[in-house]
Protein: MD-2-related lipid-recognition domain-containing protein
Organism: Eutrema salsugineum
Amino acid sequence: MSKFSRFSIALSYFLFVSTITGATDVKYCDNNAEYEVKVQGVDISPYPIARGEPATFSISANTDTVISSGKLVIEVSYFGWHIHSETHELCDETKCPVAIGDFLVAHSQVLPGYTPPGSYSLKMKMLDGHKKQLTCIKFSFEIGFGSSVADI
């Protein structure tokens, strides 16, 4: 196999994998805050998100304190307009108690087939069991125009 063929195969594989999962730029809500939970990144799979199909948001983070319970408060905006809020039990999205060190919070959801395609922004606050804010992040994501399931 020629070098060009191997390069072409490697490039095709990279492009295929990069469309399945997308890492997104994460910003803290308050750059001056000293959050107890430090977020290292967010991966979204598949990326862009397809309407009518499951999408998973995986948030990798680190903590210096044990977290025994809490909530995730999520706010979604579409072109700057607040369109959706939801709250989840932290222990439904990760194993509790959360030990000191690295951990992963993963949330999966199916977006309705009528969800408009485009750019969205998400703000997520993580609160402990006493409603103390442990972290607050925001990031953008895309919902694609099509899906692999026909909209009926």
Notes: The first strand starts at residue 22 and ends at 24. The helical segments are 3-20, 90-93. The radius of gyration is 18 Å. Residues 1-20, 148-152 have pLDDT under 50 and may be disordered.
